[in-house]
Design brief:
The protein is an all-beta fold. It has strands spanning about 5-10, 15, 30-35, 40-50, 60-70, 75-80, 85-95, 100. Strand 1 and strand 2 form a beta hairpin. The model has no long low-confidence stretch (mean pLDDT about 90).
Length: about 110
């Protein structure tokens, strides 16, 4: 399982995948980088059947919003068919593009 690097506000603890200059929750400017688990649940998803030329070789693929166990919601690509609340693990980070894999029910 791939870990995900987040930026955590040292004042309020809010976590972000993207770096920020200012915390939108408490307006402080100090952040620490932390590694968090890439395990989470599918919050929402859509399946892409027609993609731009650069991603055409991947179709069909699913883009999903994933709620990670550590309280961060991120967008990622999933190769398998998924449903809302399916458990997934981050298996790769391809330059800020997170790739998830569905967890078999026996692994949950």
């Amino acid at each position: 399982m791939e870990t995900i690097i987040v930026h955590e506000c040292v004042h309020c603890g809010k976590k972000f995948v993207q770096s920020k200059w200012l915390c939108p929750k408490c307006h402080h400017t100090e952040f620490e980088q932390k590694k968090i688990s890439g395990r989470g649940k599918v919050y929402s998803f859509t399946t892409i059947h027609v993609a731009a030329k650069e991603q055409a070789h991947l179709t069909p693929y699913t883009v999903a919003l994933v709620d990670l166990q550590d309280g961060v919601r991120i967008t990622g690509r999933i190769k398998e068919k998924v449903n809302i609340n399916d458990e997934v693990n981050c298996v790769a980070n391809e330059g800020q593009l997170y790739v998830f894999q569905k967890i078999a029910p026996t692994e949950v």
